[in-house]
């Protein structure tokens, strides 16, 4: 069996975002930011005229996903110690753990509340991969595997692997 792997990694596939991480013991990092880089590898075996899939079908999807988080404050929407509410055009975030109590207020348009319990590179890679997997199944059904890698700094990256044959397409 011959398996082809195509990796897309362009300068445009990145986002800059602020976040904090909450640790199991209740400690919380200070709010800080990263210039995240994103790459995705697509694998499959069936080519048509020497093409696994047209790259131009998925590059805009990767850019769209990165743009959605670029220049934002990323907040975990499912964190047990984090409470988020909108008030007067602001996104108010309170963090209350056994170790830390903090309150932030940001302009609503600068905040992305993510469907995860913590804003970590692992969760960011998982969320990007889940979104990209669903679109890949629709736009490039011949792709069998997907790997999404997020690097938050040189020498520090997380990769998530997906078997796309197990990804269920949304019902219309």
What features would you highlight for this structure?
172 residues; 10 strands; alpha+beta; Tetrahydropterin Synthase, Chain A; single chain; seven-stranded mixed beta sheet
Describe this protein's structure.
- It is a single chain.
- This protein is an alpha+beta fold.
- It has one domain: 6-pyruvoyl tetrahydropterin synthase/QueD (Tetrahydropterin Synthase, Chain A), CATH 3.30.479.
- Helix content is 20%, strand content 41%.
- The chain contains two helices and ten strands.
- The chain has helices at residues 55-69, 121-139, and strands at residues 4-8, 14-19, 32-44, 72-76, 82-87, 90-96, 101-107, 111-114, 145-153, 156-163.
- Strands 1, 2, 3, 4, 8, 9 and 10 form a seven-stranded mixed beta sheet that branches. A three-stranded antiparallel beta sheet has the order 5-6-7, with no helix packed on it.
- Helix 1 (55-69) packs antiparallel against helix 2 (121-139).
- The protein is elongated.
- The two termini are 34 Å apart.
- The model has no long low-confidence stretch (mean pLDDT 91).
Largest beta-sheet details: 7 strands, mixed
Number of domains: 1
Radius of gyration: 18 Å
Class in CATH? Alpha Beta
The name CATH uses for the topology is: Tetrahydropterin Synthase, Chain A
Q: For the record, what is the CATH homologous superfamily label?
A: 6-pyruvoyl tetrahydropterin synthase/QueD
Instruction: Supply the number of helical segments.
Output: 2
Report the average pLDDT across residues. 91
Helices and strands: which structural class? Answer: alpha+beta
Q: What is the tally of beta strands?
A: 10
Q: Element order, helices and strands?
A: EEEHEEEEEHEE
Helical residue percent band: 10-25%
What is the end-to-end distance?
A: 34 Å
């Amino acid at each position: 069996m011959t398996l082809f792997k195509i990796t897309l990694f362009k300068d445009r596939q990145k986002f800059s975002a602020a976040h904090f991480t909450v640790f199991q013991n209740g400690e919380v990092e200070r709010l800080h930011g990263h210039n995240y880089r994103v790459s995705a590898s697509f694998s499959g075996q069936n080519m048509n005229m020497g093409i696994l899939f047209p790259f131009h079908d998925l590059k805009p999807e990767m850019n769209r996903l990165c743009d959605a988080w670029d220049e934002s404050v990323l907040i975990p929407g499912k964190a047990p110690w984090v409470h988020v509410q909108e008030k007067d055009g602001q996104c108010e975030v309170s963090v209350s753990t056994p170790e830390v109590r903090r309150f932030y207020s940001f302009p609503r348009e600068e905040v992305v509340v993510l469907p995860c319990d913590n804003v970590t590179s692992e969760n960011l890679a998982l969320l990007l991969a889940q979104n990209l997997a669903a679109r890949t199944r629709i736009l490039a059904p011949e792709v069998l595997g997907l790997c999404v890698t997020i690097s938050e700094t040189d020498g520090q990256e997380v990769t998530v692997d997906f078997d796309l044959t197990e990804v269920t397409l949304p019902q219309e």
